[in-house]
Model the fold of this input.
Amino acid sequence: MAAASADQLREPTILDMVVTDHRNALALLDKFEQASSSQDRIGMENTLNAISMEILMHSVAEESVLYPFIEERMGEQGKEFSEHSLREHKKLEKDLLEALQARTEGGHELMDVVKQFRKHFEHHLKDEEQDFFPKLVQQASEEELTQLGPQFIQAKTQAPVEPRAEP
Done:
C-alpha cells in the first residue's frame, strides 16, 4: 500500500469547505430536479428543505467568518467583494423563501422558482470560486485559511434553519 501524500493529509482550508458546500448544494439541486421530473412531491419537499438548510448554514458561516477575514486581509477590494456577496445572499434567501412558499402548490411555479434560484446560486459560485478565491489565496497563507475552518464549521451550527426576514 502506498503512503499517503502530504496533500492528501493536509487539513482542509475554509475555501475547501466552502467549495464542498457549493458542490453539496448543487447535488441537492440535481436531486430536486430528479424528484420533480418523476413528480415525487415528497422528494421535492424534502430536498427543498435540505437545500434551504444547506444554503442558510453556509451563508451564515461565510458572512460571520470568511467575509470579515476577506475584508481585513484585502482592504477595499475585500469590502467590495463582501458587500456584493451579501447582496447575492439576500437574493438567494429571497428565492429560497419563494420556493418554500411555492412548495405547497408544486408544479411549474415551484420549478421556475428553483431554476431561478439555481441560476443565481451558480452565478454566486462563479464569483467566489473563479474570480475571488484565487485572489484571496495570493493574499493569505494556507495556514491562515486552514485555521478558519473550525470557525466556519462552528458558525454553520449556529445558523437559522429558515430564510432570514428582510430587515
Remarks:
- The chain has a mean pLDDT of 89.
